[in-house]
Write a structure and sequence with these properties.
This protein is of the alpha+beta class and 421 residues long. The protein has 3 domains: 1-27; 28-183, Serine Threonine Protein Phosphatase 5, Tetratricopeptide repeat, CATH 1.25.40.10; 187-420, Porin (Beta Barrel), CATH 2.40.160. The protein has helices spanning 3-31, 35-47, 51-64, 69-81, 85-98, 103-115, 119-132, 137-149, 153-166, 173-183; strands spanning 187-198, 206-217, 220-231, 234-248, 251-259, 268-278, 282-292, 297-309, 312-321, 328-338, 345-352, 361-362, 370-371, 374-384, 389-403, 406-420. The strands form 2 sheets. The protein has a 14-stranded antiparallel barrel. Strands 12-13 form a two-stranded antiparallel ribbon. Strand 8 and strand 9 form a beta hairpin. Helix 5 runs antiparallel to helix 6 (103-115). The longest helix is centred in the N-terminal third of the chain and has 29 residues, at 3-31. It is globular, with a radius of gyration of 28 Å.
Length: 421
């Protein structure tokens, strides 16, 4: 009776012994590698996205050769690529304390601050590096970008002239000049059109139009929109004002007011939502929407988390609407892939529940607000044709509630064009 349990104990012991010996053998094999080989293997792993494995090799290499600063720089960059910017800064601080004029370390430190959108800190590092290397073209390119993103066009153009004096054939000169010109285009007008239709003849198609004027000011971006919607046999109009004021460094807000004198829209619409820049390339927000229909107001609370990774942006958002019977909830996920730095991107999205920003809150009876249900997926793109013109397009599928208790399939196409001047 005791033979079987004893055999199992022996088997587990042998398995543990094999695991430990294999791990020790693997560690010895790594220890037998030279510093250069460890570095190049780690670099290949890091460039292939296996950064945790790369850091294991780099730690062994740093123990072997503590003065080999390129190892620590790569170690710092792997942290930066993973959004662990504070840890990257600590590693680079160690390198620059030993070698303050080491160009690769200065580039790495500069990249960390630019990726983290800390433009003032990036400018300090860039200017320090240029004191040591005044003719380094890539440093001048970075300083132009920093000044451009800080809306300091005069300083950006002056730095660009220095770059031209050093090398008039630098391939970055004309794209940078065009990007500065684009940044100086502070006004825009746009128009968009959306068409929805159902798989049943019971409900007629819906159409929506928007005309918008926008302006970039020292206080943030401001927009005025005229929305028009035709649905359920009614024509609706809404005048809307959006603003994205800068509050302090790392914090900006979304402010909205809308007014409608017709059906299909709430009579008054208020929105306020501050956004906070968080560590490790995250962004968070907490806000509210307040919609006034003919019957009663609807209070909506929203929370979102955004994350930037390489050329991708991920956004997860939820809306919560307290009600007299139950809490209405919605959740949506949007993923964008940016194709270059000019604002061209692809996106996919999906979600479930009602969203007030998509006008699913409809006063259909005049006495009761219906929080209509919805499940949806969609995809689309924005394409910058040139510095002044851009177009966008999206296609969506929804399984939505058009009136309480009636769910139907819905398809939607939308397109828009924007002109900057």
């Amino acid at each position: 009776m005791t033979a079987v349990p004893m055999m199992r104990i022996v088997q587990r012991y042998l398995a543990m012994l094999l695991f430990v010996s294999t791990a020790l053998w693997g560690q010895k094999a790594l220890d037998s590698l030279g510093t250069e080989e460890l570095f190049f293997r780690a670099r290949d792993l890091a460039f292939n996205g296996q950064r945790d494995s790369a850091r294991v090799l780099l730690k062994i290499a740093m123990k072997k050769s503590p003065s080999y600063v390129d190892i620590r720089i790569l170690f710092a960059r792997t942290y930066a690529w993973d959004g662990r910017r504070s840890e990257a800064r600590q590693e680079l601080k160690t390198v620059l304390a030993e070698k303050p004029k080491y160009l690769d370390a200065l580039y790495a430190a500069l990249d960390v601050e630019m990726w983290d959108d800390k433009l003032n800190d990036a400018l300090v590092i860039c200017n320090t590096a240029l004191r040591y290397f005044p003719n380094e073209e890539d440093l001048l390119v970075r300083r132009v970008k920093i000044y451009r993103d800080m809306n300091k066009d005069v300083e950006a153009l002056f730095t660009l002239s220095i770059l031209e004096d050093i090398n008039r054939t630098n391939v970055n000169i004309e794209p940078l000049r065009e990007s500065i010109k684009t940044k100086s285009l502070l006004n825009s007008v746009s128009a968009s059109y959306a068409y929805d239709w159902y798989t049943t003849d019971r409900y007629s198609p819906r159409e929506a139009y928007t005309i918008q004027y926008g302006s970039v000011t020292p206080y943030g971006t401001m927009m005025v929109k005229l929305n028009s919607a035709q649905r359920f046999g009614n024509n609706g109009r809404q005048l809307e004002f959006d603003a994205y004021p800068k509050i302090v460094r790392g914090i900006y807000a979304y402010v909205n007011y809308g007014y409608s004198w017709t059906k299909n829209f709430p009579k008054h619409r208020f929105g306020f939502e501050p956004f906070f820049q968080l560590p490790a390339s995250f962004e968070g927000s907490v806000g509210t929407r307040l919609l006034f229909f003919s019957s009663r107001p609807v209070d909506i609370y929203t929370i979102s988390v955004g994350y930037y990774y390489s050329d991708y942006w991920f956004s997860l958002r939820s809306y919560l609407t307290p009600g007299t019977v139950q809490l209405s909830r919605s959740l949506s996920l949007t993923i964008r892939q940016y194709l270059g730095g000019d604002g061209t991107y692809l996106f996919v999205k999906g979600g479930a529940g009602s969203s007030p920003d998509e006008d699913h809150y409809v006063d259909t009876t005049g006495t009761k607000i219906n929080l209509l249900k919805s499940q949806n997926i969609g995809t689309g793109f924005q394409w910058m044709i040139d510095n002044q013109y851009s177009i966008d397009f999206s296609a969506d599928y929804k399984y939505e509630e058009v009136v309480p208790g009636v769910l139907v399939n819905n398809y939607s196409l939308s397109a828009g064009i924007k002109f900057k001047f």
